[in-house]
Design goal:
By secondary structure, the protein is an alpha+beta fold. It has a single domain, classed as Ubiquitin-like (UB roll) (Roll), CATH 3.10.20.860. Helices cover about 20% and strands about 40% of the residues. It is built from one helix and four strands, in the order βββαβ. Strands 1, 2, 3 and 4 form a four-stranded mixed sheet that branches. β2 and β3 form a beta hairpin. The protein is elongated, with a radius of gyration of 13 Å. Bound molecules: zinc ion (ZN). The site of zinc ion (ZN) has 8 residues, from loops.
């Protein structure tokens, strides 16, 4: 698909590094399957992946680490 941010690049399937922030906490999740823009690097997550990602992020944030780096897990918790 065409990138919505830069409106120039095409997106291709790949693995994104997603950074989420809440209050003082930062969570970095690697290996997230996404469509990534070849031009600006913006990534687009499917609903299924986004849902799973936020569920996983919620668990990590509840553990209370200020900075946490994790890998995306598509199945299980
Ligand atoms: Zn783009």
């Amino acid at each position: 698909m065409k990138c919505l941010i830069c409106k120039h690049g095409e997106t291709h399937p790949g693995l994104a590094v997603v950074t989420l922030q809440r209050d003082e906490r930062t969570l970095v999740i690697k290996g997230v399957p996404a469509e990534i823009c070849e031009n600006c690097g913006e990534y687009y997550l499917s609903d299924e992946v986004a849902e799973r990602l936020y569920a996983q992020a919620e668990q990590s944030l509840q553990r209370g680490a200020e900075v946490e780096i994790g890998h995306f897990a598509m199945s299980g918790a």
